Amino acid sequence: MGRQFSGASGVEIAVALVLAQVCAVVLLGPHVGDGGRYLDDWWLSAYVRFPHELGFADGRDYLWFYSGARPGAVLYWLDSYIGLGFHDAWHRAASVVLSGGLASVFYFLLRQLRLGRVDAAALALLTLALPVADSVHFWITPAVGQVGLGACAAGLLFGLRALRTSGRPALVLHGASLGLFAVSLSIAETTIPIIVLSLLVYRTATGWRRAADRWVLDLVLAGAGAVHYAASSPVRLRDDTANVSVVEHARTIADQAVTLVTATLAPSAPSRGWVLGAVAILAALVALRVRALRADGRDWSHERRWLVAAGIGALLAGASYVIYVPADSSYLPLAPGVGNRVNIGALLPLSVLVYALVRLAGGLVAAPGPRAVVTIALFAVLFVSATARLHGDRRLWERAADEQRLALSALHEALPAPPRGSSMLVFGVPGVVTRFARIGHADVNQPVPVFSTWWELDVAVKLSYGRADLAAYPIWAEQPPQLLCGAYDVYQLGLDGVRHALAYGRVYAVDTAEPRAVRLDGQAQCERVIGDGLTIRYDLPV
Amino acid sequence: MTCRSSARGRRFCALAALLAVALAGCGEPVVSDAGPRAAAAAFMQRLASGDVRGMCRSLSAAAAADLARDFGGSSCLATAGKAARYVAVRPGQRAAVRGIVIEAAHDTPLSPAPFRAGAQTAALRLVVDDPVLASRQSFDLQLRLIAGRWHVDGGLNALFTLVDP
Fold first, then answer.
1. Do B109 and A228 make contact, defined as CB atoms within 8 angstroms?
2. By CB atoms within 10 Å of each CB, which of A208, A223, B44, B155 scores lowest?
3. Is the pLDDT of residue A90 over 70?
4. By C-alpha distance, which of A100, A90, A23 is closest to A387?
5. Helix or strand holding residue A447 (H, E)
6. Using the beta-carbon criterion (under 8 Å), do A171 and B8 form an inter-chain contact?
7. B164: Cβ–Cβ under 8 A, 6 or more apart, which residues?
8. pLDDT band at A1 (very low <50, low <70, confident <90, very high)
9. Which of residues 41-100 of A touch B (CB under 8 A)?
10. Chain A residue with minimal CA distance to B165?
11. Which residue of B has its CA nearest to A213?
């Protein structure tokens, strides 16, 4: 393999690795200190911290229950909690490092695909800036998806390298490539479509026969992965065809994927029709240019390269959603907040697609100097608009974290040393913070969880106090009744249908706005206190 | 290189197949929770039919104390008797108890932990059509293995919506 790998020298590799991390820190670093835990982060932290008390043998036992279908992810989470403990800021820092790592692997893959340094660097930068799947940057638990995606990209890189080599080194590289694919599949099913379409990537390096020989092995792996996930995915993630048919779900995914692309290209466009029209005009102009170049016998490799790249990007981006078609109907490309993690499989190919369109548009300018200026200007607009939205999303996640910290701080102030086995009915803590934003032509309510279910607040309190014997339940306004003062117990009626009977004398009504805690000792007092209990609605617009 | 073209090709394909099989085999082990489920179902049946002695044989001391919080009584028999009488007398209660559904081991992140082989405790999620609230709700029942038999150990108070003393 000499002193170069993936078409890059050792110096270039080192510079790329460092620059990718620097860019990740610049774009995502502020979230390390200002972010919080969200949804699964609370559950994993609490159950790894108190496995015995919460019904499990140990942390590994819980993680296996939580997501045993993804052994690679379980191993990552276990190792991360062993290595980073329960310091959530360290976990967020690890996520930033993973983001930089993914960008650098993508850079090396693009260099292996014979892209120039500038193009490869611009594309790698886009993967950090595009907000289409930014929940995997801001949310600790799904950040492991970046490891899976990076392993898949590395698998493609080694596969390409193997196809350009022969003999024993080629076998070693093929083995490494397949191993990396296996790692990515062990983490999540999101890379199955990319592996299935690996032939398109291999064809750039070799002829059909050799590419197909290697592709067969990829199909075996991808097939095994598909069978495994189809059989072992949790029931909650499977289809709900009683409510939404598979065809309907597929149609909605396709429609929203188009909006996602147009929103990425031109977030301020009044409708996606404008953007699609512009893309159609661009396609027509490129077609005319190609025809003219070919008629004159001139080189049109620039146009060919970026047309192929756009096609592959579009195909891979679309294919990445196939795995969600038979799954729960909430898995949609425009799902905001925590939901946009479904776009992680489309992140790299979508970057390629939008960048290819930028290069094609810039390529319409004949003169080299102005062409470079126009291309750089178009990329700058794309990058700035992406980072502006990324920043806005990040601020929303951090606002949710601020509300979490306020709530927990108020609880500690109101009830610094709750007696053993105490339960807290918590008033004044929102379930989510929300913001209306435009994604394409759609106005979308973007919620990010504060403590969006009683589960989250319950385990957050356990973690915060360092005690598994405590319980906590958030109470919200403008929702179905969540409390009933019984003769001998307060009944907490969860909005998810799960209820608890909390004994008088061991249950506290906590007003986080004051902050103040009142122990409930009887039915009459309960009705008086809860009746006076001012609380907050579930969703807090910010 | 194809799977049949050479020894190396065959080894490669075998490796790929082995990886595929290994990956396909990953997943969580399944342990039957028949013991705890049968114990929970039997207890509910005894409660519905007023088998007070049977109820006390199926209740741990902690669970009996919790139940006494709601129903009073200085002994398990007295407490269980009052609970059984409540179920027998209040409209819709007997049907609600008889109609309780014990959910299969769930896979939502905070459903009761699935039963483990050799474990001394278990938790189950039960679903009841509450006649007081006129709604279908769930609660978690804890069980404990005592002297080789499963006993209800906690969570039973959430079965009843005792508004009137």
1. no
2. A208
3. yes
4. A23
5. strand A442-449
6. yes
7. A487
8. very low
9. 43, 54-57, 61-62, 64-66, 68-69, 71
10. A487
11. B2
How close is the nearest chain A Cα to the Cα of B42, in Å? 22
Nearest chain A residue to B71 by CA distance is A488
Kind and range of the H or E element at A307? helix A301-319
* pLDDT at residue number A2: 41
Percentage with pLDDT > 90 across chain A: 84
Reported as type and span, the H/E element at residue A237 is: none
Helix (H) or strand (E) holding A15: helix A10-28
Which residues make beta-bridge pairs with B138?
A498, B127
Amino acid letter at A343?
A: N
Per-residue exposure over A245-270, b if at least 16 CB sit within 10 Å of its own CB, e if not:
eeeebeebbeebbbbbbbbbbbbebe
Q: What is the pLDDT of residue B33?
A: 79
The Cα-based distances of A326 to A230, A233, A323, B43 in angstroms read 10, 12, 7, 40
∠ CA(B71), CA(B73), CA(B77), 5° rounding?
105
Token digits of residue B52: 């007070």
Element (H, E) at B104: none
Q: Which of A68, A217, A235 sits opposite B12 (nearest CB)?
A: A217
Q: Say how far apart CA A10 and CA A337 lie, in whole Å.
A: 39
Tell whether omega for the bond before A515 is within 30 degrees of 0, i.e. cis.
yes
Neighbours of A327 (CB within 10 A): 18
Q: What is the pLDDT of residues A367-420, one digit of tens each?
A: 889 999 999 999 999 999 999 999 999 999 999 999 999 999 999 999 999 999
What would the pLDDT profile of A44-88 be if each residue is shown by its tens digit? 999 999 998 888 889 999 999 888 899 999 999 999 999 999 999
A118 φ, ψ (degrees, to nearest 5): -65, -45
Residue among A508, A519, A422, A518 at smallest CA distance from A469:
A422
Give the C-alpha separation, A365 to A291, whole Å.
15
SS3 annotation, A48-115: HHCCCCCCCCCHHHHHHHHHCCCHHHHHHHHHHHHHHCCCHHHHHHHHHHHHHHHHHHHHHHHHHCCC
Q: How far apart are CA A350 and CA A123, in angstroms?
A: 10
Q: Is A82 exposed, middle or buried (0-12, 13-18, 19+ CB in 10 A)?
A: exposed
CA–CA distance, B96 with A222 (Å, rounded to integer) = 48
Question: Per the CB < 8 Å rule, is A224 touching B21?
Answer: yes
Chain A CB contacts of B16 below 8 Å: 178, 217, 220-221
Question: H/E element holding A334?
Answer: none
Give the CA dihedral B9, B10, B13, B19, nearest 10 degrees.
-120
Rounded to whole angstroms, the Cα distance separating B63 from B38 reads 18
CA B162/CA B165 separation, integer angstroms: 7
Residue in B closest to A456 by C-alpha: B110
Query: Which residues have C-beta within 8 Å of that of residue A130, sequence separation ≥ 6?
Result: A264, A347, A350, A351, A354, A386, A390
* Encoded amino acid at A84, one letter: L
One-letter amino acid identity for B31? V
Q: Residue A6 in 3-state DSSP?
A: coil
- Output DSSP code: residue A271: S
Nearest to B23 by CA among A513, A146, A221, A347: A221
Q: What is the 3-state secondary structure (H, E, C) of B79-94?
A: HHHHHHHHHHHCCCHH
**A185: nearest Cα among B21, B152, B131:** B21
Residue B86 structure tokens: 């409540």
Q: Contact A361/A374 with Cβ under 8 angstroms?
A: yes
